[in-house]
Fold each of these.
Amino acid sequence: MSLKTSNLAFKERVNHEVNNEIMRKAVVKAQETIGANRQKMVDELGHWEEWRDLAKQIRNHVLQNLDAYLYQLSENVIKNGGHVFFAETAEEATNYIRRIAREKNAKKIVKSKSMVTEEIGLNAVLEQDNIQVIETDLGEYLLQISGDKPSHIVVPAIHKDRHQIRKDLHEKLGYEGAETPEDMTLFVRKKIRQDFLEADIGISGCNFAVAETGSVCLVTNEGNLRLATTLPKTHIAVMGMERLAPTFQEVDVLITMLARSAVGAKLTGYNTWLTGPRLEGETDGPEDFHLVIVDNGRSDILASEFKEVLRCIRCGACLNTCPAYRQIGGHGYGSIYPGPIGAVISPLLGGYEEFKDLPYACSLCTACNSVCPVRIPLAQLINKHREKMVAQNLRPPLEKLSILGFNFANSHPAVWKVGVNMGAKLMNKLIKDGKAPISVGALGEWTKARNLPQSDGESFRDWFKKRGSN
Amino acid sequence: MDFQHNREQFLNRLAAKMGKARSFSPQAMEEPLNRYPTERLTELSQAQLCEEFVNFAKVMMVDVKVCPESDVVSSALSLCEKYGGNSVILNDDERLTRLGITQALQEKYPCHIWSPKTGQQNIDKAEKANIGVVYAEYGLAESGGIVLYSQPERGRAVSLLPEKSIVVLRKSQVLPRVAQLAKVLHDKAQKSERMPSCVNIISGPSSTADIELIKVVGVHGPVAKIYLLIDDL
């Protein structure tokens, strides 16, 4: 997989998703449950706005000193006996990891959930060498066996219900047990345990790397990350180059904000801080540790007016509050990064050609701004994309025509007056039971899911004039 | 391409994109905007911290038994009995030996003591053990979690592979939150001491909510987590 998760056109994806009752029910439940848990944890912590200020301050400091911190980090990883590879592109990153896998003669790799490895399409590259790559996060594992794609940054299989999951487990792995999350989870536990014991390499992402010590900090609830970094002889951690903290003290702030924002928990079940390979005399943990630091477009973002988005700590809080995500789910975005954060970073990483529709999958309600733990002004950045697309003449043709028409009417008062008067009368005649007979363009899209308001045939100006004379 | 060349090419290019001269050491961190992370919960007495720790650990589905040091052996035995006894694996931790837990469990159950001398056998034994027993460096009041450092005599797998995990901890070692642990590690780094290869902060048993957001315990790691808390205050 890579950044793009669908070859369908945006409208086709959206049409498909708004009719996916299971997904919509699941996303509503997730937004409400996680949202309520998050709020509880925000209240419990207290001084939330000040914590956000501090998290923003830390992330900005890191971004301003990124070259120096990456240098310091790499020095310390090497000092601890690890290896570091800097990858400018996705291809460089996957080629390096492939080379390590070949050197180790790897047949089986266990992976812990990692967005950046999804972004660079790592699994497909390794599978070309007939290496079995097993996603070990339960949600990712369920998606992998059914050939599906993640629809959420934190809860990747949120769009599936237990019936679908049982069906997949039965068809792909011969599961005959009950349709309960407990039984299905136990089945997967038994199924994967042997894979952990047999795997040659464990691959993980990196929530935060610590420049001062050369450590990588990883958070999970399931324990799969611990297994993937304890049992195989080689551990490869892959990090987006901005995921740094100066010391463990800043990691404290960031994991506090991450757990509370992502799942409404004080802390995730496991926080694993790894420094280099195992030490002399240790029996478990990797003998060989590699850190792959990936740019893949991030330095261009850092040099642009979108650089604030690199503060992101991938908590998914913006998804959990977004009304557009609520309607179209993650698959509607066609990117491994969905929701508001996806609408900002997908076009930056993948280009406007592929993701020009995403900034328009947003009502600019700013709900995402208000929950972001590192204060990324997501709505403003989404709007900035639209401005750039206008400047580059990339806006949708219908929008171009509409704006031209609006500009003309707006600058000619007589036309405006005739337009609104006629429009009010016309709508009064045409709208029946909330629907219009001519359903094209934006009007058509709107009426697919909503009713139009019934006009009484009077324009606002006329109504106001009468009201003023009373 | 060798490492130096690969790194210099990457970082020089990055600095150029950032519109600045390449730097090798970061500017000092600005004064933090506030001190909430380091000051939170520090107004509590040690006893209150422990109460907070126990209460939240229970919320996280941890079974907590508190006892005086004089009862720690009998408590360890009764906890092992409660969780099915059978095969046990322990870290070769002198703190467990000094408390008499290691010897008592060895007499009662088939036990394996994690040792650098027994290599891969450690992992095989941990995988088959019903209970793993470890001694924690710290407890964290805010999250009800415990902190483990890896060492040759203290395997990562002892708290990971067995179905049940018993953690022995002293009340006096309960810290307010991660900030205080981070400070300990930062101070070590400042003195150029090597970090443990693995520091684990563990709050509760392994769990997932990936199917319909329903919390299920024990997806990969231990299905039960038990704290044996020694009252030494």
Amino acid sequence: MASILISDDSSSMRQMLCFTLTAAHHQVQEASNGSAALELAKRHSFDLVITDINMPNLDGLGLVRALRHLPDYQFKPILLLTTETDPEVKKEAKMAGATGWINKPFDPDKLLAAVRKVLG
Amino acid sequence: MSIDMTEVRQLFFEESFESLDTMESNLLDLQVGDADKDLINSIFRVVHSIKGGAGIFKFESMVGFAHTAETLLDEIRSGEHSVTQAMIDVLLQTVDVLRMMLTQLQASEPYDESSVNTCLISLRGFLKTHETDTTTAPSAVVSAAPVFEKKSTQYWKIIFKPDESLLKTGNDPINLFNELALLGTLTVEAELDHLPTWQELVVQNCYLNWVLMLEGNVQRQHIEEIFEWVEGDCELTIIDLSAELVSNDAPTVEIAAESALESSSVESVTPPTVASEPIEAQGAIHSELSAAVSEVVDCAPETLEVSEVPDTFTPEESLEIPRNFEVSESVTPEETTAFTSEMDISVTKPVDKAPPTPKIDKAEVEDALGLKNQATLNGTSAHLSATNTPSSEASSIRVSIDKIDDLINIVGELVITQSMLDQVSENFDFVKLAQLRDGLTQLERNTRELQKSVMRIRMLPISYSFNRFPRLVHDLSVSLGKKVELKMSGEHTELDKTVLEKMSDPLVHLVRNALDHGIEKPAERLAAGKPEKGLLHLHAFHQGGNIMIQISDDGAGFDMKRIHEKAISSGLLNPDDPVTDEQLYEFIFHPGFSTASQISDLSGRGVGMDVVRRNIRSLGGSIDIRSIPGKGTTFNIRLPLTLAILDGQLVRVGEEIYILSLLSIIESLRVNSEQVNSLAGKAEVYKLRDDYIPVLRLYSLFNIPNAVTRLEEGLLVIIEGDGQRIGLFVDELLSQQQIVIKSLETNYKSVAGISGATILGDGSVALILDVAGLIKLSQTSVPIMRRLAKEREHEYQH
């Protein structure tokens, strides 16, 4: 069981993530935008952060960069949710320090596989 | 693991509809020529989220459609377009199409593809970047990737040399190896060559390289997937040791072809190692491999016809084929022979001992891909209809957190009160009477608050209904050639969900009327000394336990003269009768008056004004009009806060208790028998001041024994419904209280004259009288009475 922070401005996407992750006995906290996620991340040490790219306030890439500056999140896995299959976006994500990405739409099993992959 | 998606699906629909509303209003706010970044971003996010959500539920065509819209928005966002009115219109059309698709998908019904395609074509017309086809949109392709179902064991050698900075992206090699181990038997060997001295060691860096051997039913794709995230942060070589080992009994040609092709795609390894390394590494494999090689050496090299291959490839892979084959050009002829002959590909042109030149027919590859996409799409649509559950009418509502918090808070207090009462009741003594009373008072307060809180959950801000008007006004004013400014206020006023839903059509009708007939054309307005732009104001507010909705325009107002004429010509009014404006307004609500009327000022589309009023009345509300010629018209709609609870008056008839809505009661009085006229020995009318009111004896209607039968001994309750009054004869009035309405239809069946039931404090069931229904009943049972009453009325007046 891991504690996971999910950040997405779409509440159905959040619910979907939350549903899948809690079904696999993870503890999940939600944020609806990047800056809210960052605040949560500062207050609680999550094992994994899963974030959308397109969000108001602070977008996903911004969140990753900000998190990587926090000592606690220097090596923590951060996954990006993305529908872009554009290699540029992925490159940018890597540059920002993202661990990997999950392509939306995701298959619940694939999501769990990805989580398992980064959490071991 | 399978997950029940129904609930999430429902949420997706709701959320999408909601965000489409946002998108619509954002589009309406968008100024031509000026791309407001925030608005564009917000619009983009809506389309983006819908695309993402649609993908989850495999609504492929929706994904494709949304993708095209998204592309256009992205181009606008990046400043490639300046916003034009045409563009806004197409995007508004996009909102409509998406809404239509969602509605149909929710109902599991097919949607109108032609409107989707029309809109798609208009969208594409704006696009700068060429989009091939929506079916090849990225998300569609992802799901189009075929599933490999192979049974043969494969051997893989993976050389993994991560960059020193790998750990900083949160990737841990051990996790990757664990993943690999899930695929098959894995042996891991670490290379320590790059390990620095203790002094130079930076803990955050990764200095190790690994060589991994993987054995099992594994496809290259699976391995690549595992290393997908570290692709740019490492040097990775994946070698298929088994490509050459596939023996003659290989079940399908495809496997061999695929493996061979894949092995040729190894980029950083020179071809000889492909052959030599595995032989050294795996003795057992050696003999088989040489057998395979020697067996095929005789064969002449052949040209690859790649167009036969795509079946086994994901689109991305097939598109990479040319590059892969360039690599394989350095392969020695013998090995090439091995590769190609294993693929069992038809001979098209013998090449003597030269590396094969792959001939890739792009069109054919695309065809193959197209076909596959088609197949996948067909597959998903079948899947769609299978998973779709018929959407139930009972939809959910979104409730703000603070309402829920309130509720929880009150329940908490209720629990405290309960435990307090518990304590009091233990060893009860009369000394504790005061305490008990306090407890009960507290309980009463808790109950009241709980009731209020629960009711609040059903309340939605009227903006849910108002939000559609900017679009409606925009569209209508364009089509009518008028200039209209829409002002809305009090959108946060909350209203019961049912009331809100039922008010939707009447409001639309009134707004349409105001635009169509109220507000004049710009030229007329200027001539009348008014600003060119007309004003339509929607206003909602609370007033004395009711919700008021005002719809006012600054248009021409009603033409009272024409209404008067029309009323006379349709026989509703006597030409000589004096008539007030209020009475004339009344005609507007007369059935048939508006629709059949020549007075175009009043004609409406859709529901007529009579239906508007009927709808409002069925909600227990009322509507009135104020119109000043040349200045404008205001409709005032008064609605009850909620339908689930009513302020009731308990009345007794015999031993039965009935409930009347307090709103319907005008007065109640002791009957003076002199003022009762019995007509034809049956029907009775009561002369109330200047009015004759039919009397309905409830005990006789409902056949109740032991009731008061003499009029002087009971009470007459004058009630009004549907604009008519009757006097209801009951034994006595009891208390007034708030009544929670229980539906009779769902618990029993519909009964004429009864609108529902409730449970009283003592646990007994009381029926709620349906005033409009009772009036109808009284009319059908006493038609003669009414006629006589009318005649008498005339006599009285003259």
Amino acid sequence: MASSKIPLLVERFDFIKLIQNVQENFDVFLPYQTEYDGKDNLSYKKYSGDNDFVLNKYRTIDPLKTLFYLTSESVLPPSAESRKRIVLGVKNCDLLALRIYDKALLEDNFVEPNYKIWRENTYIISSDCDDALQSCHCNLMEYTPYPQKDDGLFDLNLSQIDDKYIVTLGSKKGEKLLDLLYEHCNVKDAPEDILEKLTVQRDKVNKKLSEINKDFSAKRDYSKISKNQDVKVWSELSKECVECGGCTNICPSCYCIIVNDESVGADFKRIRTWDSCQLTGYAEVAGGGSPRERVWERFRNRYQCKFDFMKKNFSQYGCTGCGRCIAVCPAEIDQREVIKKLQEV
Amino acid sequence: MNSPNPFDVIKADVLNVIEESPQIKTFQLKLEKPLKFETGQFVELSVPGIGEAPFTPSSSHYQDPFEMDVSIMNAGFVTGKVHKVKAGDILGIRGPYGKGYPLDKFKGKDVLLLGGGVGLAPLRCLLLTLIHDIDDYKSITVCFGARSPEDMIYKNFFLEWDKIDKIHLMTCVDKIPDGEKWDGKVGVVPILLDDIKIDPKNAVSIVCGPPIMMKFGTFALVDKGFKDENIYLSMEKKMYCGFGQCRHCVIGEYYACKDGPVFSYDMIKGAEKIWE
């Protein structure tokens, strides 16, 4: 029976037992250190006995959508697997983006078949960031580097203090995870001194984010993006863009896709694959017409989509401040700088 | 709860293929399951294993829901493949998607259809639907244009439509190449508006055609005195999915597939580059 007395406390070594013991029924995904790009990055990997996973620190390099809305999937017939999964170490920036996906893909009349399968069969155990990357800027989007229960997006959350996890319940679905926790681990109520440590830790990471983003302000007038139609301004902002589409592929909120058919013998499969509004042919129709032929038009579209259209469509900006688009850009275009410059013109 | 897969298709037998013009063919389909739509809505038609593309049916929405006509111009990859399809072949169809023409707002009014090229396809669907309920409308003015006489589709119906009392049909072609015959007007579609006999202030107009024609057609209607909110445009955008998940068709905050494809001019006037 799941206790309603929370937050709880569990030792890290003890928690590992849970992961090991649920292997038969669940695929478990966790962030691991990877030396991608010569830096210490984190990336989701399926658990296979390696206990060096990292639940704290900061976001992974790969957005959460890689586990819910795969790069390329067959939608007819749906290729998603209904095996139960637990994804651990999900950070708030990815959770908030999932809310956009839920609104876009699970609408009553048209439910995306794969997303529904992945989503329904996955438990999310989120965790706090206790550090930040130079590109991190959730604070500028007025979000926190740890999830808020009111958002209702995580099932359980783990806040790491030294070698312990403070456990909070986030959803009804999370109760099943709590049952598993009680079954496999030694669970205690989190004592006051540990909870105080958490407050200190959260203050510290908030301060770090403020320091990283000290040149930028959260008080930004996003209406300047759509209002500004000055070719010169946008051409200047986008002049380094090489149209690789990296910013949209790495973005946890971007979900644009193309749909193609593939022959399989006498039958066929319908495949949906990520697409990017930054690429030339994106909006081109038969006959060659395109509303956004030039780089600056496509560049501007991305900002409009995130800070105007999506806000109207989903009551939420299409940016959660994860900063992956900044980290990935080969032209070193910094979204924060772009918005700052737009405030000044 | 199991939701139906929105990418799933209904099998459609091709009963007949009509060559309307050198570039446009009408495919008469017999569907395995009924597909009921409202005029102005669109469907995704697929060549199995090749791909799909959005089209608006050209038959009336009052037609037997197991039957549908779709007129298609050979303009790109999928349409090129569709044009190779023959009677007896099988296509896939899914839909309907989007919002149709707001017929309630047309009732009791003078209705003007302004169309060019393959844009006559959705307008034929609308016209046939309007004819079905002809008593509901004050009058119907039909202004159809094409590049040349041989590019003008549905010519065989013109006489029949023109015989209906409430219908005033006018047609024009951009030019008459050597060896082709044409008795009507010569010029681009907006010139037909010079001869309309209705009061634009209380009339509604529906525009469908190539982007350039829609642009100048709309400007001409505004000049004539049609109100922005009474000009309805069928917007052609890249609609991969049809239900707001691929995002390719967004016009500002709107999805052409969900909020359109029919928009009143005042809704999208402010958006950028709507004519391209």
